[in-house]
Amino acid sequence: MSKEIHKLNPNNWVKLxxxxxxxxxxxxxxxxxxxxxxxxxxxxxxxKAMDNFQGLASERTWLVAILKRKIIDHYRKINSNKGKAExxxxxxxxxxxxxxxxxxxxxxxxxxxIEKQIENEELNVALEKCINNLPEKYAMVFRMKTIQQLxxxxxxxxxxxxxxxxWVIIHRARTQLRKCMEDNWFKN
Length: 188
What we know:
The structure is a single chain. This protein is about 65% helix and about 0% strand. It is mostly helical. The protein starts with 12 loop residues before the first helix and ends with a helix. The chain is globular and about 50 Å long. It has helices at about 15-30, 30-50, 60-80, 110-135, 135-145, 150-160, 165-185. Helix 1 (about 15-30) packs across helix 2, helix 1 (about 15-30) packs parallel to helix 3 and helix 4 packs across helix 7 (about 165-185). The chain is built from seven helices and no strands. It folds into two domains: about 1-80, Rna Polymerase Sigma Factor, Chain: A; about 125-188, Arc Repressor Mutant, subunit A, CATH 1.10.10.
């Protein structure tokens, strides 16, 4: 039994696949301009990698695989930059008030809400770091099911896995996430 060999036709990519890829990206990124940029990057990367296309998957499946890597790269990039931002305090630089706080910049209310927000942001950073440490497929399935709340059937169809396989992956991802969060968040 011979398998069908698929061909690439980049002249039709925008017409045939742009909307699908955009909807795929927007479901994972939730930022319109970034989703458009990732689709463009996908097309560009596809053009550069045409020689590597073996024809074993359909053109769309191949482009979606490239887009998935672009999305993962995006999350890795933004997560590697978190925590590197430097907090700068505003002081008068010269004159008789040199070194004093600029009164307009001083926070007016240091209440529990600010502490909760900071703690939530730190928790999100720790959780995202743990998700990024999961095997790629585990992270993707976990995000799709738990964060994006996609239907099991849709995830299985998109990733070409069975529902029992999906639930095994979810279980393993949650187990690894629990351990990672215990080691990196709850012990602090």
